[in-house]
Amino acid sequence: MKTYFFFLLIILISIPALAQKNQEINYDSDRTLKNEERYPGALILSGIENQVYFDHDGIEVWCDNAVFYKKANFFKAYGNIRMQQGDSVSMTSKYAEYNGNTEFAFASGNVKMKRPQTTLETDSLFFDRLKQQAYYRSGGKVTDTASVLTSTEGRYFMEENKYSFKYNVVVTNPEYTINSEQLDFYSESGHAYLYGPSTIKSETSTVYCERGFYDTRADNGYFVKNSQINYDNRILKGDSLYFNRERKFASATNNIKVIDTINNSRITGHYAEVYREKDSVFITKRALAASLQERDTLFIHSDTIMVTGKPEKRVIRGYYNVRMFKEDQSGQNPMSGKSDSIYSDQQSGLTKLINLSSKGSTKPVLWSGLNQMSGDSIHLHSNTNTEQLDSLRVFNNAFLIQKDSIEGYNQLKGKELTGFFTDNALERVVIDKNTETLNYMRNDDQELIGINKTLASSVEIFFEDQQMTDIYYYRQVDGKLTPEEEFPPNARRLQGFNWRGEERILDKEGLFAGEEDPELTKIQGIALPDEPEEFFEERDEDDLLLDKNSRLNPKVLKNRKIDSLKFKSRKSSDSLKINPNKADTLKIQTDKVQ
């Protein structure tokens, strides 16, 4: 029994020892020499008819010549090198090193690593087979089925089919160019994740973001954090943006802004769609359009706003619960209005307030100072040169109401109303066809002398400082001034009277009065990339990634600033050319890279 346990203990102790034993590198060579003076303890392998061949734990290497330190399980390969790992990874270079104990390789000189979907090219590459990761820090290029990606530093995670590029990242595609601070690229799917200030630029648009996703093969993307899309004449901003190049479509969600750089206008809201080919914008959720004119600004708010047409023929349409406010620099002559829908043609300067319902409360209404005008539809005409209001027309059931300075309401009604403006202030109004008026008449001391009710074919009213000063009746049919006490209270309002002064919009904030803030869509963010472990791990001084006979000094195999390792063929020596830079000075010492 004791003997049985003794042998079992020996077996258990031996298993880890066997597991830790490194597999030896196998080789084949047409010629094998020794040169103890130059390469102590090494075999010098050369190909004559066939290349030198190495085989180690699933990796195969072919080269013209090699120096093989068999005891150290390490070799240096020269000339027309080809490495193959299974069916998925192949690499070519002019020079390479490989340590069978650490399964770590280094290659330089026109390095090309090929995968089914991509080809990586660089001047020097580190390859850790245990981690299944490749790394360069001296500039590299990856060619995908659709694009070419370049960067100063790059790392390839083979198990994930993922490249992580840093510093001066550029993606070149026939349709666009991407510039980014950091980009993660998945070669199997063609998906790219952008981090830091990044742009995607094409002939028709430029996308900017500080965090985003882009499908390089389907040409669509999703962007967050300070993202915007610049078209030829429009800028789209929002908390998140979606972009589809093939459909020429973009959408934005939450805190969005669409800026028209040609017509100097801006639309805000919380959801927008832009169709570049059709020159149209759709916006909703607290939608607000602002036409930023030199002298004043026109604001339009509605449930939904659409902007269509080429830059020189822009048309703004608002649907449902339209509210309008027009300010001017003097602050004395603001104008506001309400309607079911609105149509504004920036080229002609025509704005229409349109009724879509038979309910009286939804009929278009317009306030100029204390004057309220309403009807089935209202047209405003602006002078496109001076950018000021020129005139207005009210069609069908035109009604003008002005609150009397003390009590009651001055009222004028007819079939149509035409108004004329000077410096955005209402100066004159003409009401035609079957007009009726009811006015509170006062003397110079503002004492009421009676109420005048008149029927006429048409009426002309003049204003000064937004107040009625003179009224002229044409083809008067009937008119009478009646003392107040003799005028019945229930007859002091003309048929169709509807004073809506409490709805008057006095400032920009009033456009949203009584409305609840919309419930914003929860943005699906893009998480920052997981910080991977450093490519080079800390090692003891006597535990080398390559070997003491490597060209690379152990200091090179450390995580450090960007450097440039350049290969140069030299007949007289076995050397690696180093281009020092200011950040990290490298020197050649006895065939070592520092």
UniProtKB/TrEMBL annotation:
<dbReference type="GO" id="GO:1990351">
    <property type="term" value="C:transporter complex"/>
</dbReference>
<keyword id="KW-0998">Cell outer membrane</keyword>
<dbReference type="InterPro" id="IPR050218">
    <property type="entry name" value="LptD"/>
</dbReference>
<keyword id="KW-0472">Membrane</keyword>
<dbReference type="GO" id="GO:0009279">
    <property type="term" value="C:cell outer membrane"/>
</dbReference>
<protein>
    <submittedName>
        <fullName>OstA-like protein</fullName>
    </submittedName>
</protein>
<feature type="signal peptide">
    <location>
        <begin position="1"/>
        <end position="19"/>
    </location>
</feature>
<feature type="domain" description="Organic solvent tolerance-like N-terminal">
    <location>
        <begin position="48"/>
        <end position="181"/>
    </location>
</feature>
<feature type="region of interest" description="Disordered">
    <location>
        <begin position="571"/>
        <end position="594"/>
    </location>
</feature>
<dbReference type="InterPro" id="IPR005653">
    <property type="entry name" value="OstA-like_N"/>
</dbReference>
<keyword id="KW-0732">Signal</keyword>
<dbReference type="Pfam" id="PF13100">
    <property type="entry name" value="OstA_2"/>
</dbReference>
